[in-house]
Write a structure and sequence with these properties.
Layout lengths: L5 E4 L7 H14 L3 E4 L3 E3 L9 E7 L5 H14 L3 E6 L3 E3 L6 H9 L20 E6 L3 H4 L3 E4 L2 E4 L2 E4 L9 H6 L3 E5 L3 H4 L4 E2 L2 E6 L5 H16 L5 E4 L8 H11 L5 E4 L17 E2 L2 H10 L3 H15 L9 H16 L1 H16 L9 H12 L18 H8 L5 H4 L1 H9 L7 H29 L20 H14 L4 E2 L10 H8 L5 H16 L9 H14 L4 H15 L10 H13 L6 H28 L3 E5 L25 H15 L1 H4 L5 E4 L1 E2 L6 E6 L3 E6 L2 H6 L7 E3 L4 E4 L5 E4 L3 E3 H4 L5 E6 L11 E3 L1
Parallel strand pairs: 1-2, 1-18, 2-5, 5-14, 7-11, 14-15, 15-16, 17-18, 25-28
Antiparallel strand pairs: 3-4, 6-13, 8-9, 9-10, 12-13, 19-21, 20-23, 21-22, 22-27, 23-26, 24-25, 24-27
Helix pairs in contact: 1-2, 11-12, 11-17, 12-13, 12-17, 13-16, 17-22, 19-21, 19-24, 21-24, 22-23, 24-25
Length: 790
């Protein structure tokens, strides 16, 4: 069953299945058809997200166990709701004391029946798995290791001992194991298992092996067969060896009975592979385009200039988007992903050694070619194997330019052909092609999402997963073309505005996007609050780049909170890795960041922030309501993140992953419930057989209206760039011609419009900056007191 809309709940020990069940009546009342649950399988104890699975065969005890999940499903069904589950096929937690499969591998080595579960390069590790868990070098940590029976202890961590080794002296005991305990810093260069991105605590799973697939998906498939689960969200398919084959296997195993979407991040105009047996993506591609509608391209360009003047970014500090991405990619591929690059180089060396025509390519040249091509992959992961789209000629030319000698640059073509599957068949060729693609996605995620987004910050509302901060604005024509394509090709795809992974919630982004319409006022405000803060102890920003981010973030919140701001800003500074980082923190700088957050935006200058925010509130209202209504009525299945049916001002996790609670309704709630209930009542209008027709306003302010009609029965019209509209004179002389018929405004039931003739937008938007119109059936009586607009 395809949902009409889903509602995401973040389960955690403080919000288990029983709490979700208690919220069901409220959620059902909003008008959604399905609950969307974060991962429910057994995870590391205390996990607040569930992506660190340790036992895929069990439903998590801390959430209430399998019976708790089944009770929740029954409660949901009683209220007309189904369940959608978030599943994690790519990785598990690399915590041996909780992960039984990994424990057995470490105890029994490569002959363990569980060894096939994980991508471990035993040869590269000298027959051992490197476990980068020690706080320092092994020689400095020996005193913290102790043996109890057949278990090795290191702090709270536990490791199994190989049979008959428990009584050996400690140095010999360590040498006798199937694993090597190492300093955590060795993960960068020595790690010999595939992981999730650069997180060594999450080990990759080989679901391409049929036995591993069966073992890791058995419980999920049981829940599907029993009717407990009706939909699946597949986390990070780019990390899998062969995503399309996996998805086909999943589709076959579920009997095609599940609505399935994939967390596939599409870059630019990249398309989801047409052959994937899924309903579509989880919706980041929709998020970028909706946000883009409310970003002024001219003002954003001016903001870029003012950012460069204020922050003086140079080099790695992010003055230009493409250059920032490239520098970040080099940083990640040569440092955080050095082990992955080395693994690819070893595979390339073996292929070349086996081919007389390729033997003279030096290892250093192959390594350089791998690095130079990886940083030039234009998308997260190359899927068009054998086609130019995966690694276009321009990427090869750029990679060759990094070589001083043309003959040595020929290694680029070898590596490119390997990555595209053009150098024959064989285990090494297949492994290279797969690992190159997997490493590419990790590199893109870490260099763009987790580095460049924190370095290039003229308009931080644009720095969202799947976004393009270098060109964030999206005009109505491009948006309509995108929606027409969705309606034709992926009508049941997911759409989102806020998720558990967004760096800022939709309402925060909607406020910050408004700065693209008033760059001069922003510059004046920034100058004022900078002076105000500088007069206070701790109120001088440690660097201008951070100051720019802080004040935009504070404005996005409206009323800043010291704790929330400092947590988010420390994460921002560490991810940017310019003056501090996760692995090499600068305590003095971080103390200055925390002090500035408290004394500056969350100190006395907060009143200036609140005043500036209040002045712009009417225009923020248009952005918030407009983006919400567009998402809820455009092609696709909208997913609402917990609490976003009302004002939801949240920053990056953990700020956005607090336990769910109901809150008082507001105007956004009214818009949301009207659209959701309409979708539930009229599924044929918004479903897979529905159509999407752009509507064009006429008049001097036409570009400020985005409107479309769904299946001839529902019209959405919203105001975009409302501040610039107001300053240009408003809607005077601008009209929208509705399709023929009588149209009721569901947001103002007393109002009705006649189609087939122009409706002045001063009337359509007289009371609200958005309108949701439903065609009245022939002969349907108008509501008492209705005002008809002819």
């Amino acid at each position: 069953m395809t949902p009409t809309a889903t509602y995401r709940l973040q389960l955690q020990p403080d919000f288990p299945f029983s709490a979700a069940a208690a919220a069901v009546p409220y959620i059902a009342g909003l008008g959604v058809s399905h609950l969307h649950l974060s991962p429910v399988l057994e995870a590391v104890p205390g996990s607040t997200h569930g992506y660190d699975v340790v036992d895929p065969a069990r439903v998590r005890d801390e959430l209430g166990g399998e019976e708790g999940l089944r009770r929740l499903a029954r409660t949901a069904r009683e209220h007309g709701l189904g369940l959608v589950l978030d599943i994690v096929p790519n990785h598990m937690a690399a915590v041996p004391r909780h992960n039984g499969a990994l424990w057995e591998v470490l105890r029994e080595g490569p002959l363990s029946p569980y060894a096939r579960w994980f991508d471990i390069d035993w040869e590269a590790g000298g027959g051992k798995v490197l476990l980068p868990v020690l706080a320092g070098r092994i020689g400095d940590e020996l005193g913290r290791l102790r043996v109890e029976g057949d278990v090795l202890h290191y702090g709270e961590q536990r490791f199994p001992l190989r049979e008959s080794t428990g009584k050996l002296p400690l140095p010999e005991l360590l040498d006798a194991q199937w694993y090597r305990l190492g300093w955590w810093r060795l993960a960068r260069t020595e790690l010999n298992y595939r992981r999730f991105f650069t997180i060594s605590e999450l080990i990759g799973v080989r679901v391409e092996d049929p036995e591993v697939f069966a073992a890791t998906h058995g419980k999920i498939l049981e829940l599907v067969r029993d009717g407990v689960v009706e939909g699946l969200r597949v986390d990070h398919p780019d990390g899998l060896a062969d995503p399309e084959t996996y998805l086909r296997q999943l589709n076959e195993a579920t009997g095609g009975a599940c609505w399935t979407v994939v967390e596939k991040i599409l870059t630019g105009e990249e398309r989801l592979p047409a052959g994937w047996p899924v309903a579509g993506t989880t919706g980041y591609d929709a998020l970028r385009r909706i946000d883009g509608l409310f970003t002024d391209p001219e003002g954003e360009a001016e903001l870029v200039g003012r950012y460069r003047e204020f922050a003086g970014p140079a080099g790695d500090r992010g003055g230009y988007w493409e250059a920032t991405v490239r520098r970040a990619a080099y940083k990640v591929v040569t440092h955080e992903l050095a082990a992955e690059t080395a693994a690819l180089t070893r595979l390339a060396e073996r292929v070349c050694a086996a081919d007389p025509a390729l033997r003279d390519h030096a290892p250093w040249a192959l390594r350089a070619a791998v690095r130079e091509l990886l940083v030039r992959v234009p998308v997260y992961r190359p899927y068009r194997i054998g086609g130019e789209e995966a690694l276009p000629p321009a990427a090869a030319l750029g990679a060759k330019a990094a070589f001083a000698v043309a003959e040595e640059a020929e290694a680029v073509e070898v590596v490119r052909d390997l990555a595209l599957g053009r150098l024959g068949e064989g285990p090494d060729q297949d492994a290279f092609r797969t690992r190159f693609a997997q490493t590419s996605s990790a590199l893109r995620a870490k260099s763009v999402e987790d580095t460049a987004f924190y370095r290039y910050v003229p308009l931080i509302s644009a720095n969202e997963v799947g976004g393009d901060p270098g060109s964030p604005a999206v005009g109505p024509a491009l948006f309509h073309a995108y929606c027409e394509r969705l309606a034709r090709d992926w009508p049941a795809t997911g759409t989102v505005l806020t998720t558990h992974d967004t760096k800022r919630s939709a309402d925060v982004r909607a406020r910050i996007a408004l700065l693209s319409e008033c760059p001069e006022e922003w510059a004046d405000f920034l100058g004022r609050v900078t002076e105000e803060a500088a007069r206070l102890e701790g109120g001088r920003a440690p660097d201008p780049h951070l100051a720019w981010v802080v004040w935009q973030t504070a404005f996005g919140l409206g009323i800043p909170s010291a704790d929330r701001l400092s947590t988010a800003l420390l994460k921002s500074a560490r991810e940017a890795a310019l003056l501090t980082s996760w692995t090499e923190p600068d305590p003095a700088y971080e103390e200055a960041v925390t002090a500035f957050a408290g004394a500056g935006p969350a100190g006395p200058p907060m009143y200036s922030v609140a005043l500036f925010a209040r002045e712009l509130d009417p225009y923020v209202r248009a952005n918030v309501l407009g983006s919400a209504l567009v998402q809820l009525t455009m092609p696709g299945v909208p997913d609402l993140y917990q609490g976003t049916e009302r004002e939801f001002l949240a920053l990056v996790d953990p700020d956005n992953r607090q336990p769910f609670h109901e809150g008082p309704p507001n105007e956004k709630t009214t818009v949301t419930t009207a659209a959701l209930r309409l979708r539930r009542e009229r599924p044929e209008v918004f479903g897979e057989s529905g159509t999407y027709t752009p509507l064009q306003a006429d008049g001097p302010a036409a570009e400020h209206c985005l409107a479309f009609c769904r299946t001839g029965e529902v019209v959405t019209a919203v105001t975009r760039l409302s501040l610039r509209l107001d300053r240009a004179g408003g809607w005077a002389g601008t009209e929208l011609t509705l399709p023929a018929g009588r149209w009721a405004d569901l947001l103002a039931p007393e109002r009705e419009f006649t189609g087939g003739r122009p409706v002045p937008l001063t009337e359509l938007f007289a009371e609200c900056p958005v309108a949701l119109l439903s065609r009245r059936a022939a002969g349907e009586a108008a509501a008492e007191g209705t005002t008809t607009r002819d």
